[in-house]
Amino acid sequence: MNPAPRRYLAIHLASLPTDRIMRQRLGASWRVKNLHQEDLDCAKPIIRPLVMTAKMQNAIRLVHLDERARAIGLQPGTSLADAKAAFPDLDVLEEDANADRLLLEAMADWCDRYTPLIAIDEALPGEFGLMLDITGCAHLFGGERELMKDLLVRLFHQGFAATGAIAPGPGTAWALAHCQNTKTDKTHSALQSIRTLEEIEPALAPLPLNALRIGPDLVQALARLGLRTIGQLYRQPRAPVARRFGRELLYRLDQAMGAVEEAISPRRPVAELMAERRFAEPLVHENDIERTIRRLAAHLCEAMEKKGVGARQLQLSLFRVDGKTFHMEVGTSRPERNAEVMTRLFKERLAALQEDYDAGYGFETLRLSVMASQLMTQKETSFLQDSGTGDADHLIDRLTARLGAEAIVKGVPENTHLPERAEREIPVGAWHAEKASHRVNGRLRGLVSQAEYPEYSVQDISKIPSPHSIVSNSIAVRPLRLFSVPETIEAIAEVPDGPPIRFRWRKILHKVTRVEGPERICDHWWSRQTPRQTRDYFRIEDDRGHRYWLFREGLYERETDRPKWFLHGLFA
Amino acid sequence: MSGDCPGPIPNFIARPVVTRTRQETREVCEALAGSISDIEKHHLLLEDKAASGLHVAFGIDAIDRALDPRTRRGIAASGLHEVRVAVGLDAASGAGFALCLGILLAKGIRAASAQNRISDDSQPEKIAPIFWISDDFTRREYGSFYDPGLAIFGLAPQDLVRIHPKSHEETLWAAGEIAATRGAASLCLIEISGHPKQMDLTATRRLMLRAGASGTPVILLRQSGEEEASAATTRWHVKPAISQNVDLEKTPKLIMPLKRQFIGPPAFYVQLEKCRGGSADETTRWNLEWTPDEQRFSLIRPGHNAASSIAGQQQSAIA
Questions:
Q1: Of residues B57, B61, B87, B90, the one with CA closest to residue B74
Q2: Of B96, B148, B246, which is closest to A452 when you measure between CB atoms?
Q3: Which of B85, B144, B238 to mutate to test the interface with A (most CBs of A within 10 A)?
Q4: How many CB pairs under 8 A join A and B?
């Protein structure tokens, strides 16, 4: 059986930058309001034509125009001086590409409600659009036309002029979406749809060549040859066209005609499973949100049970009525298929994000997606045994959801003798992965690690090495507390390499009574141009029983004339 | 609606006025009093449970007697214990003692639960992790726990989960969450500096009750702290003690250090300042040494090369 033919919805936002400005000035519903005003008194719009400029080709030129500016005959690329001479009453602003991009990203997020496969259209600079792969999603909205209508009407009410078209390929949809006239239908932006490959040619033939996603220079060059529409170009023999204008042109043409397959690259990873719920009345209360999450989670768990998997990563998307979207993710340390546990994780996450998310007028759609899953084997548990470390995993998941992954860490041994580098902190979630890779290798990474961290545990008294057996195993004793940056001390010591006799740390003088050492630790001479100086570590005890780990940096008369002293750690 | 009612009293949504007869009022009051006493009983019950629950003996008669004069069972295994360090210099001693005490408690709990369970040697038992909660300031000021150094205490790095909260509220929340989960942690170590107002009597009492109910040992390690009222079962004041000499005869394989001056295992000078149900006073203070091989404390004589460790401690306190 052939897979279902793909369906793409292209959305063209003809005046996104100016719409952004108008939304800021008049509010998101400015298009709707403006219409009413015109209907009432038939007066001329009080708004002046708005143009946005940027410096191009050594002159300040118009780049984005709103509908009024286009209606009076201005063109992008005209220099601002010319435009001002013809129309002194222009409203001129500077372009802000960054803000436009952010707005487009937010719109793409918002469109997430229709399909998870959304790409930001970047075919041509200065053109704004979105490409949605709506294959298999349309029936949820009552059909393709209904989906597109719903989307365009909502965008219109949010203050954007948008046109859209649905076609079997992104190129075709793009061409149709870009060559529609918004003026024909003012309240609802125009819509068009192509179902089969046979419909493509007649629909595209009359369209101008700039619908092919090619640069303006190429369009002009073709126009000089009398080629103005897609139909005219399509009837030309292919070889000479390719020789003269390059293969890019033919490639674009084939894409538009549906002869070449084209894929879009979605912005977000596509969820493996999704459950969502829409509401006629927006949700505001946290309790309602929580209850909805529980229901969605139950749905997902059912679906996961059928597939025999459990969720490792979950994402909750909250769509607010005014178009803002919030995404929040939680991870689990083992495959999870318990709706109650999932709900609890999101509860912590919501509590942690209290300040960052704002229910405002409420959320109209909630979606729970499984972003990553893992095969889940049912474990047979003896009824005599308690649940073991399962509780610890859940606990760590909850802590991670509330405090963030960076706040719950474990140490991993590193392959180095430098004490401050010998241990690295990584999130517990990543730690599990690291451990798994170690198990595959059969040993812990690094030459020191295996010896330093043998597998023993709290109650295996016989296997626990004492400091002395550690020494006899030629593993050096290390302090309980380590300063990530060694602290400078003033020390009096014998030259050239004697232990310290007295030292001053944090303004207090300490008299050394007992010393162990030195233990000499060199830098990685092979890994850098100028290695750090050699360190001689001493374990010392002062007359009051404090035990410290000091080191002298630099070998006397070989590396330096004045070795410096540091305090690196504290022993219990 | 709110606009037409000016005045100092906030205009709440009007509530229906309930008129009760005297009889009804009395019934309501009695019901309330009943539920209040229920709540209090529940707490007392929990505290009783903690008191009657598992105890772990130090194996040192003087300490066990001070902790529990009647039965000499030692220290209550679950619940909240506080370890206090007066000055920043002693930070590692406090951490070391808290860790040793925690290991002692965790070991006691494990031993007790192993007795109650039918042994199943087919699969190795997994050990619940040790949680160490410590904020940025504390780690910067007193250093971070160092995994290679934990080996001396008989801990593998995979046993220790570090939590770095950004605020005292997060510290409390995380500690509460760990204390409340049964069997998820073999020890929860909360390290704070000074006296944050969030860690007050109410908060410590809540921690104490949760830990008691779930059977998790929780140790509050207070760096640079004074004596403060808290709900902890015991409070220990820790200073370092001069370590014992290492017997060279017994360890012939040792590499020769300079001048044969070896530093022995961790040694502490501890004072039991407070003990619920026990006797804590000026005399309850000891020089203790942690024996890593056996994971237990033992009494030591004051250091040999100072006049007396206790005397030395007092001197240092004066200085």
A1: B57
A2: B148
A3: B144
A4: 263
Q: Which residues of A290-304 are buried (b: 16+ CB within 10 A; e: fewer)?
A: eebbbbbbebbbeeb
Q: Count Cα atoms within 13 angstroms, Cβ side, for A88.
A: 0
In this model, does residue A384 exceed pLDDT 50? Answer: no
**A545 and B295 in contact by Cβ < 8 A?**
no
Q: Which residue of A has its CA nearest to B93?
A: A572
Q: Which residues pair with A372 in a beta bridge?
A: A313
pLDDT attached to residue A550: 92
Tokens of A48: 């002046």
Interchain CB contact of A506 with B (< 8 Å): yes
CB contact under 8 A, A545 and B145: no
- Residues of chain B positioned with their CB less than 8 A from the CB of A439: none
Contact A362, A320 (CB under 8 A): yes
Could B177 and A399 be called an inter-chain contact, meaning their C-beta atoms sit closer than 8 Å? Answer: yes
Residue numbers in B near A386 (CB within 8 A):
183
Measured from the Cβ of residue A372, the count of other Cβ atoms closer than 10 Å reads 17
User: Cβ contacts (< 8 Å) between B183 and chain A: which residues?
Assistant: 386-388, 391-392
Which SS3 state, helix, strand or coil, does residue A33 take? helix
Reply yes or no: is the peptide bond before residue A518 cis, omega within 30 of 0.
yes
d(C-alpha B48, C-alpha B66), whole Å:
19
Beta-sheet strand order (sheet of A128-133): A118-120, A128-133, A8-13, A162-167, A191-193
Q: How does pLDDT run across B34-59, given as a tens digit for each residue?
A: 888 887 777 666 666 655 678 888 88
Q: Which two tokens stand for residue A305?
A: 């049970």
Quote the tokens at residue A402: 């509330």
Residue in B214, B275, B269, B271 with CA at minimum distance from that of residue B242: B269
- Rounded to an integer, the average pLDDT of A213-221 is 86
Residues paired with residue A510 on neighbouring β-strands, in sequence order: A503
Span B269-313, pLDDT tens digits: 999 999 888 888 888 899 999 887 788 898 987 755 433 344 344
Q: With beta carbons less than 8 A apart as the criterion, state whether A142 and A149 touch.
A: no
Unique residue bearing structure tokens 């059912």 = A302
